[in-house]
Amino acid sequence: MEPTVRRRRLGSELRRLREAKGLTLEDVEAEAPVLKESKVSRVETARIGVKPADLDALLDLYGVGTDEEDEEGAAKRALLHSLAKTGARRGWWQTYRDVISPTYADLISLEDSATSLRSYQTVLIPGLLQTAAYARATMTALQMTSTVEHVDGLVQVRRARQAVLTRPSPPELWAIIHEAALRPRIKDAPSVMRDQLQHLMDQAELPHVSLQVLPLDAPPHPGLSGPYTIIGFPENDLDVVLVEHLTSALYVEDTAEVSRYGSAFERLRAAALPFDASADLIAKLKDSL
Prior knowledge:
Endonuclease, Chain A; 2 domains; 6 strands
């Protein structure tokens, strides 16, 4: 199984803590024989997960949270245990491992445990707000050489993902969509885009969904660099940003960088149309089809 974004972060943090103590892998094994050198190496490189007891042994050795008065250390310890727990999670999406990439599986896993999602999209409707017909049309165009069966699988995954918005205690979704994403025409099937725009308006009625449109005539803004999604958790240090491209995707986990994306999103919210004006524009575009 491919390492998850959480497991990679855990491994890199454990390696940083070990090196900060001036310890080699051999030193770790000498200090704690139960932690074999090869095992610690595989944890640090995210090839395997780590059991809670083994993680505690490592953190004790590194002096993280061993002092009852060390609140920062205790918080770090809790954070790393959270990374270990979520990094090992398996869900319904594992059934589709032959259809989706490891990066996509990571996204679904993160969405499943998130408390907030902030998405800025420039040319596509956010995946969680897509109709099946729109998803099929856009995926067919993006995948280019994929078979009908492969696209069918991707559409099934997309629809299954959307259940996160209708479950008890769903995440708060704030979507900012550039007006350009609302204007494409689906050849020979104008009803696809019309139904998609109606679906956006319906979803915006949900109490946990906020939808704004960034108009074509908006002044220069941070969104010019491209679309992204901020996946938020109760522990702010766990927030992740997903930046997607045609053939790859990047997860940004550095706290300072994630904060910059958050600041950019605030500027985008200010530049976008208010909720009522956004709904009016979507309705106008739908009626024009």
